[in-house]
Specification:
Layout: E1 3-4, E2 7-8, H1 16-21, E3 23-24, H2 26-42, H3 59-68, H4 86-99, H5 110-120, E4 147-148
Helix pairs in contact: 2-4, 4-5
Length: 152
């Protein structure tokens, strides 16, 4: 969880709006998931970016910096390049970037992220067989628009 006993979780995964409002939302979850995707494709840690430049900031900020400089491709981990999946890596990176946009309203929904990830992997014959995990004992469960985890 992002909020435990009054302390933030790892700030590199926490959406910017959560830090201001302390309200967890589905779009905040998309941000956190996007940071995890960025870690996978870049080989970098959320709060510990190692670059050849004197960059100061977290992983999402570093990737945004490279993107704004027209150098997004430089973010991809060198150990992943040249293995026949470079196009998919770029698509994956672009999706991760969309997940960590500063404005929550500009981020995709988690459904859209799921759909786009499946589309990227379509070449590898993923099936819908395990598309959903069946939930047990869901009687009375209602989805929430937002979860308030702290009040002033």
């Amino acid at each position: 969880s992002t909020y435990v006993n009054g302390d933030f979780g790892d700030v590199g995964y926490v959406a910017p709006e959560y830090i201001r409002t302390l309200v967890a939302t589905p779009k905040g979850d998309v941000y956190s998931f996007g940071v995890a995707l960025l870690e996978l494709v870049t080989g970098q840690r959320a709060n510990d970016v190692c670059s050849n430049e004197d960059f100061k900031g977290n992983l999402a900020e570093w990737v945004a910096y490279l993107s704004n400089s027209g150098r997004l491709h430089e973010a991809i981990d060198m150990s992943l390049k040249g293995k026949g999946v470079d196009d998919e890596l770029v698509q994956f990176l672009r999706l991760a970037c969309a997940c960590v946009l500063t404005e929550a309203k500009d981020r995709p929904t988690i459904y859209e992220v799921h759909h786009l990830l499946r589309t990227i992997g379509q070449r590898y014959d993923f099936t819908d067989q395990n598309n959903e995990i069946p939930l047990t004992d869901t009687a009375g469960w209602q989805p929430m628009d937002e979860l308030i985890v702290a009040r002033e």
